[in-house]
Design brief:
The complex is a heterodimer.
Chain A: H1 2-15, E1 19-23, H2 32-37, E2 42-44, H3 49-61, E3 65-71, H4 72-76, H5 80-88, E4 95-99, H6 117-122, E5 128-130, H7 135-145, E6 152-156, E7 177-180, E8 185-189, H8 194-206, E9 211-215, E10 218-220, H9 224-231, E11 236-244, H10 249-260, E12 265-271, H11 282-288, H12 293-303, H13 311-321
Helix pairs in contact in A: 1-7, 3-5, 8-12, 9-10
Chain B: H1 13-40, H2 45-50, H3 52-62, E1 75-78, H4 84-94, H5 99-102, H6 133-146, E2 153-158, H7 165-176, E3 182-188, E4 191-192, E5 195-196, H8 197-200, H9 206-212, E6 216-221, H10 225-234, E7 243-248, H11 271-282
Parallel strand pairs in B: 1-2, 2-3, 3-7, 6-7
Antiparallel strand pairs in B: 4-5
């Protein structure tokens, strides 16, 4: 979805000269449309993410809307304190674009896997956090948020070809996108893994289980009212995210359930263990951490008393508790 | 010891006038630093006193700021944010901060804390976490270039702040992009929180380091206000390398028992110390 995101950014930049783009020396075969069209509004700052965010802060004070671009880990974690003291505490419209959340960088390994980016960005009260699920939604989300007065974090998937059927490019700040309604279980997800969750729901349907599938793309502000309405209709909710367990989507839903007194059981499916060093594809990592389509199906059936739990996920869960 | 290198026998009336004006500004800023830190019982006095003459040179004439909200004003970033009290004092002497506001320093509900916040009129950027100001200054200078504006950006760093790697990321970028409209002033007082810079993490040879990073380096006396101002006025801010003034200063300048004393990074004054400090500043030429 990153190409769609950049293409939308080019369109917006053609209409508004305040839009600037800075990269920390990443974005090969992605940023060229912007760099070629607006060479005077594009900077490769080199491998220096802190400086990139600091520069963006200075540009934003003067009235510009700078986008800073890197792989999601490097865009959020290395310059985190610059983001906090710069755009967040000074209320400036810097946009942090983190590419490839979760395990999307596959065999590049743990250094490239953003597994806590949503948690740390969500912890900042002034930050809008947007996690599109596919290219169409990324386009819509950018169009809806680029001009916000405060800072925004976009966790943008690396894969350009994923489409989440039924999402149809819907995005609204603070709202939930519901893809299907079913009364047995609610599957709540965010980001690029949404397509897998939808596949899991299809499999469940074949097994006679009706699942609600809901996508949280506006993580902050969170769609609290929408979520509460959906959760009120089911006895079991399962959150699925390519992110660590603490502070991400599962935490968000747990907080909501507790604060609103919603009566439903919550299962959080997320990454619960420290990376082992064993590498492989994105699909491999998702399997290893109990986040494959099969694992989601198995866990949902088990939660409803319809089958044995998925052993990988259980092992992962036990790992955290240990 | 002469108060300023510029004070020499037979100097011109014009220079004498500038020097008197600078001394007046500097004395007023120092007195406010003492009064407010005593009233609030807050430290960082030595760090504030070491940049008083730099601030007096900037706000007393070098800066082009028609009013603090003017979009095309020069930008100033006090990256060594712990010296903000001296900046508040300079903004007061300049007429942008009222006495009433100054008297709220560090009180409940005040906008004036130990570190500066952007909500204060005359403060362009918040600060407090060392090592971030130069990057922000680079962005401000880049914005001026995009707008084809002649405005300049001034960043005040502490010497120990140059321990931070991000300072050098920003230094590289500014030199690569020839940001001549960016002026960095390093307050070279030789001290940091827990000791002397040459004992904790040596910065030497600092001038050669900045030069090697592609900057136009000026080694100046950080207490010679008129000469600081004339050095700033002489910089080519239209074209060429970014500029750094390595301003040699004395930590706690003007108060004998604070000068070059590590204790006064954090300590606040007793009544007796306050009286002595006031008397020394009031007795300055």
């Amino acid at each position: 979805m990153r190409r769609a995101f950049i293409n939308q950014l080019v369109e917006l930049a053609a209409l508004d000269r305040r839009i600037l783009l800075l990269t920390g020396d990443l974005g090969y075969m992605a940023l060229e449309p912007f760099a070629e069209r607006f060479p005077d509004r594009f900077w490769n700052v080199g491998v220096a993410e802190q400086n990139m965010v600091g520069i963006a802060t200075g540009l934003a004070e003067a009235g510009y809307i700078p986008f800073v671009y890197s792989i999601a880990t490097f865009a959020t974690l290395r310059p985190y304190e610059f983001i906090r003291h710069g755009p967040v505490l000074q209320h400036l419209p810097v946009r942090v674009v983190g590419i490839g959340g979760g395990f999307e960088y596959g065999s590049n390994g743990a250094s490239h896997h953003a597994l806590e980016d949503v948690a740390v960005m969500r912890a900042q009260p002034g930050m809008t956090v947007v996690v599109p699920a596919d290219a169409h939604q990324a386009t819509a989300a950018l169009a809806a948020t680029w001009e916000l007065p405060g800072p925004v974090y976009y966790r943008v998937g690396k894969n350009d070809h994923v489409t989440v059927p039924g999402l149809d490019g819907r995005f609204e700040l603070g709202r939930l996108q519901v893809l299907s309604m079913g009364s047995d279980i609610a599957l709540v997800t965010m980001g690029a893994i949404s397509a897998d969750v939808l596949r899991a729901a299809d499999t469940l349907r074949q097994r006679g289980v009706a699942a609600t599938v809901a996508v949280v793309s506006s993580v902050r502000p969170a769609p609290l009212d929408d979520l509460a309405s959906v959760l009120a209709t089911v006895a079991v909710v399962m959150t699925i995210e390519a992110h660590y367990l603490d502070g991400g989507l599962g935490s968000l839903v747990a907080e909501l359930i507790a604060e609103r007194g919603v009566s439903c059981r919550l299962l959080r499916r997320a990454v619960t263990s420290v990376p082992s060093g064993v590498t492989g594809s994105e699909a491999f990592y998702l399997r290893e951490h109990g986040l494959s389509v099969d694992a989601i199906v198995g866990d949902a059936l088990a939660a409803l008393g319809l089958g044995a739990p998925n052993t990988e996920a259980v092992a992962a869960s036990n790992g955290t508790q240990a | 010891m002469p108060w300023s290198d510029s004070r020499q026998p037979g100097m011109s009336a014009e220079l004498d006038g500038r020097l008197r004006r600078h001394s007046d500004w500097a004395r007023r800023i120092r007195l406010i630093v003492l009064e407010q830190s005593r009233r609030a019982g807050v430290g960082h006095i030595g760090s504030a006193l070491s940049i008083v003459d730099i601030l007096a040179a900037l706000y007393g004439g070098a800066l082009e700021i028609p009013d603090p909200a003017h979009p095309d004003r020069d930008r100033v970033i006090l990256s060594k944010g712990h010296a903000a009290l001296a900046l508040y004092a300079a903004l007061h002497v300049r007429g942008w901060l009222t006495r009433d506001m100054l008297d709220t320093y560090c009180a409940d509900g005040s906008l004036l804390g130990v570190h500066p916040e952007r909500v204060v009129p005359g403060i362009d950027f918040s600060a407090g976490s060392l090592g971030q100001g130069l990057s922000i200054g680079v962005g401000a200078a880049l914005a001026a270039r995009l707008e084809r504006s002649a405005r300049r950006t001034f960043v005040i760093l502490s010497d120990a702040e140059c321990n931070e790697g991000a300072v050098w990321e920003a230094a590289m970028f500014a030199a690569h992009h020839r940001l001549a409209n960016l002026v960095t002033l390093v307050d070279l007082n030789g001290q940091q929180a827990l000791g002397y810079t040459n004992e904790i993490l040596s910065l030497a040879p600092l001038a050669e380091r900045w030069r090697a990073f592609g900057w136009d380096v000026h080694e100046v006396d950080g207490h010679d206000g008129p000469r600081l101002a004339s050095t700033i006025a002489s910089l080519d801010v239209d074209e060429g390398a970014p500029h750094v003034l390595l301003a040699r200063t004395v930590f706690g300048r003007g108060v004998s028992f604070m000068e070059a004393s590590i204790k006064w990074h954090y300590s606040s004054m007793s009544e007796q110390e306050y009286r002595q400090a006031l008397a020394e500043i009031e007795g300055l030429p």
